[in-house]
Amino acid sequence: MTTIYDVAKRAGVSPATVSRALSGARGVSEATRQRVLAVAQELQYSPNYIARSLKKRQTNTIALIISDITNPFFTTLARGVEDKASEHGFNTIFCNTDEDPRVEAAYVELMLRRQVDGLLISSCSDGRSLSLLSRRDVPVVLVDRKVKSSSWDCVVGDSEYGAYVLTKHLIEVHGKRKIAIISGPLVLSTSRERVEGYTRALKEAGVTPREEWIFIGTYKEDFGYQATRRLLEYGPSVEAIFAGNNVIAVGAIRAARELGVRVPEDLALVTFDDFDLVSTLFPFLTAAKQPAYTMGTLAVEMLLERIRGEKIRERREVVLRPEIIIRRSCGCHADS
Amino acid sequence: MTTIYDVAKRAGVSPATVSRALSGARGVSEATRQRVLAVAQELQYSPNYIARSLKKRQTNTIALIISDITNPFFTTLARGVEDKASEHGFNTIFCNTDEDPRVEAAYVELMLRRQVDGLLISSCSDGRSLSLLSRRDVPVVLVDRKVKSSSWDCVVGDSEYGAYVLTKHLIEVHGKRKIAIISGPLVLSTSRERVEGYTRALKEAGVTPREEWIFIGTYKEDFGYQATRRLLEYGPSVEAIFAGNNVIAVGAIRAARELGVRVPEDLALVTFDDFDLVSTLFPFLTAAKQPAYTMGTLAVEMLLERIRGEKIRERREVVLRPEIIIRRSCGCHADS
DNA sequence: CTGAAAGCGCTTACAG
DNA sequence: CTGAAAGCGCTTACAG
């Protein structure tokens, strides 16, 4: 490859001058700059950003660590991240953990070695897999899921609110009282808050949530499926399900269908997170839709502020309200 | 940060020895290696991969350039890419072009500057935006879309076949003859092949495709919507639509719904690409489902072979057959 | 087995 | 305005 030295020699100046001319730094005569630029063009010079990164100690790269890019919620979030990052000249490395804290820890370490300027993390653990980060001073912004006792900025959805409104809707509009919840693991803030919102709504309605209604597992399709099967096969006759997230909802509906249980006629269902594109096609799931794209862009903006070293003292916590979209799975619009 | 020099000093050896001990190179006594490792641990040494990359001229990074990570087809492909790449110690930078060749060209240039070891590209142009690459000898594998007269390996779906079978199904099973096609731009190999497959099936059935049935535009939801509106409002009474891809299908169905045209009762519809997760929930679209995940993993494997410099003379072209999934939108299973 | 030295391709104080 | 020099943090022939 042609380097800055080749350009320098050809243009009859020093490498330092080439560097300055190319970077647009002031302190180079216009004539010299033009000559350097012309030679660079002629030689098809392309700067080596690795060398620049090493020298400047900045890679203009951020990492996005999530559980699964294939989950539409994260897909949309990732798109927001990429858009905003590239707008500012940053590239994004994507990491899928599949909800495995060991994979998460490994990615964190790898990203640190790669000298990313900052990390956006939706952690699948209580934060233990992020311990490496707390010993460093690399900027981090938590997205979607909070980690207790961390000092990092975060941008998350208001899960308690969403769960509360969704559950309340089942109670007040549809008269349901026996409502089950299929939740992600309680180490995750989203799960805890959703269980809380669910519980609050029930209690306000004078219903004490029964233990058999509460399934705590993972944010995976298969768990939604298994929990629903157990619920429907052995459990008491439950009238509705609150699915902890979209993939759990898919599993739940699949199980119900297999057992010949109709949604929403025999079993109402509400869920967190939506399926964007497809919801246009099949407006079926009643859901608390989080502004995933915005979460991504906001998180990047906050991260860039930290990367730039702007002196922001306090830890910032941005909480975004989900939009409650009433469709058919809860029992509304039964005619459409 | 602690560097190799810090470790060297503390361990009482030279930086070269530290490097060798850490990299597992042979030619270091076991005793020295242990001591170095212990010191590295003690000092929480973390290697700087940027420095290594500069020296070794290898970044262990690949770029994936696609039009939109938000399209489920690309989402799944991207997951395949990330899984396979990380399995081999490579990280992936994602780039969304939104079908804009200028954005594509800009990303290509940026990725080259970042010294990625190879690129996976689903080009949105006839290849002109890739011209920078042909002057370099960086490994490239084309995915999903071929570029004419390039010498790069590629892994694509068999679009002609998929389109042919889908169209034939409409003709033979459902007796449709007036079938429209809403296609992506003809600069793309996928579009061309799908139009060819569609045409072949019609011709074999003795039907001459009419000009008013053929819509050539972009792989975007809005184009599917606009084309379908025009088709239904002004056109002759068409009996079925072949949608060029999944997002076009979404737009088409939205338009039909707005105009009170029922799918499949009033208008049959088939499409390319599927919606994974959601198809479990709503098994509606009859589609040629491409093995997106496999396309991603295969493409990475081929790219890694090139990166490793394995001497493969010939250009390789892997063509994967889509799976034809018959569901309801074509008119089958009308009872379910 | 180990070290001194050069070099990967830039950037940037420091002089002039 | 321009250049010589040092340095970012590694790796790797080359000696010994």
Task: Provide keyphrases for this structure.
homodimer; 336 residues; alpha/beta; 434 Repressor (Amino-terminal Domain); Rossmann fold; six-stranded parallel sheet; 13 helices; 16% strand; DNA-binding
How does the SSE layout of this entry go?
Two copies of one chain form a homodimer.
Chain A: H1 4-11, H2 15-23, H3 30-42, H4 49-56, E1 61-66, H5 72-87, E2 91-96, H6 101-113, E3 118-121, H7 131-134, E4 140-143, E5 153-157, H8 159-172, E6 179-183, H9 189-204, E7 214-216, H10 221-233, E8 240-243, H11 246-258, E9 268-272, H12 276-281, E10 286-289, H13 292-307, E11 317-320, E12 323-325
Parallel strand pairs in A: 1-2, 1-3, 3-4, 4-5, 5-11, 6-7, 6-8, 8-9, 9-10
Antiparallel strand pairs in A: 10-12
Helix pairs in contact in A: 1-2, 1-3, 2-3, 5-13, 8-9, 10-11
Chain A binds a DNA duplex (16 and 16 nucleotides) through residues 1, 3-5, 13-17, 19-20, 23, 25, 27-29, 32, 47-57.
Q: CATH first level of the largest domain in chain A: which class?
A: Alpha Beta
Helix content of chain A: 40-55%
The fold-level CATH name of the largest domain in chain A is: Rossmann fold
Overall structural class of chain A, as computed from helix and strand content, comes to alpha/beta
Sheet with most strands: strand arrangement of chain A: 2-1-3-4-5-11
Morphology call of chain A: elongated
Treating each run of at least 4 consecutive H or I residues as one helix, how many helices of chain A? 13
